[in-house]
Amino acid sequence: MLQIRDVSKSYRKTVAVNHVNLHLAPGSLTVLLGPNGAGKSTLLKSVVGFLRYQGEIFIGGLPNKGVDAKRLVGFVPEMPSLYPNLTVIEHMELIARAYKLTNYQEDCRQLLTLFELDDKQKKFGDELSKGMQQKLSICLGLLPKPRLLLLDEPMVGLDPHAIKSLKELLLQKRNEGCAILISTHIIDSIEQLWDRCVIMQTGQVRADVTRETLWQSGQTLEQLFFAITEGSPEGGPSNGPQNGQFFNHMPPDMGGYMGGPPQGGPPNGPQNGQFFNHMPPDMGGYMGGPPQGGPPNGPQGERPTGSEAPPAGGEGQA
Ligand code: ADP
Fold first, then answer.
1. 190-235, pLDDT tens digit by residue?
2. Does any ligand 1 atom lie closer than 6 A to the CB of residue 41?
3. Going by CA atoms, what residue is nearest to atom 22 of ligand 1?
4. Alpha-carbon distances of 272 from 56, 112, 290, rounded to whole Å
């Protein structure tokens, strides 16, 4: 469902994603685990077409930046990015129109009920608490019934009830055939959820394990994570190729590849990607800034490239 082939992304001299390969099958739930700054968000934003990068990304066999590929994807960004002057229900209707959804009303009602927003339908984006914004952001990502669902730190800001609802919903979507990729740096938040875990550090994939293979190795996910990010208890190098033993979920054509040397690209400007980035396919993934008072990291900087509009903020071609 998702093929990431040798993708690298640099912001000026910072190599955020370094020769990453990743394939996701339909009906799978993969957690992208890594410390802050590992490159998780950059990788997800590359997949949804918000950033320029080197390498290739295919969604359902289609190049990721095309409209047909974007129709298959739902994205829940790390920071909810809503229109302050649109209500909850207007946000949902906007997504429905952008994705040309028909008969979406029942799905919309169910999602808003599940995330306890049904009685907040007339509230404006800027009247919602942080947690409510996050819940709405999740509803927006799920409304189009995507076949590939990407969630960037989705549990942050949610109350326990919403976390439980989200986990149940994600498992249901996986069982219905959706390929799901969840990025997080909080191991506990995904402990019972994952089928497969990909650990990233300094832009590279350091381990790729299934629940079963990790169990067979006798390690917990936490032990593996710390062995990679802090150094193994046996005293081996912390993040070297010895972790290749954990590449037991790699498609054969990748042969456990762990990345090449960092590549310096031309200077890249600060990316945005945070502003209403639910990327309706027909709008090239970018819907512009708010009429007034958008978030401080608004439309300046790197813009989604679906429309191939020249970047406003100095993003160079990576
Ligand atoms: P994660 O999501 O794993 O926390 P990110 O993808 O956000 O990691 O960041 C990876 C690296 O890229 C970090 O070193 C971060 O500082 C850098 N980075 C991310 N966004 C930008 C940006 N807009 N401009 C410059 N550097 C960035």
1. 888 889 999 999 999 999 999 999 989 898 998 999 988 886 444 3
2. yes
3. 270
4. 21, 27, 14
Give the residue carrying structure tokens 């813009």.
Answer: 303
Q: Which of 7, 11, 184 to mutate to test the pocket of ligand 1 (most atoms within 8 A of CB)?
A: 11
H helix or E strand, kind and range, residue 41: helix 40-47
C-alpha to C-alpha distance for 45 and 275, rounded to whole angstroms = 12
Distance 15 CA to ligand 1 centre (A): 9
Residue 204 forms beta bridges with which residues? 201
Atom 1 in ligand 1: residue holding the nearest Cα: 37
Strands (E), the chain: 2-11, 14-24, 28-33, 54-59, 62-63, 73-76, 148-152, 179-184, 196-201, 204-210
Distance 176 CA to ligand 1 centre (A): 33
**pLDDT on residue 149:** 97
pTM of the complete model: 0.77
**Burial tier of 169 (Cβ tally within 10 Å: 0-12, 13-18, 19+):** middle
Q: Is the CB of 16 under 6 A from ligand 1?
A: yes
Q: How many CB atoms lie within 10 A of CB 8?
A: 24
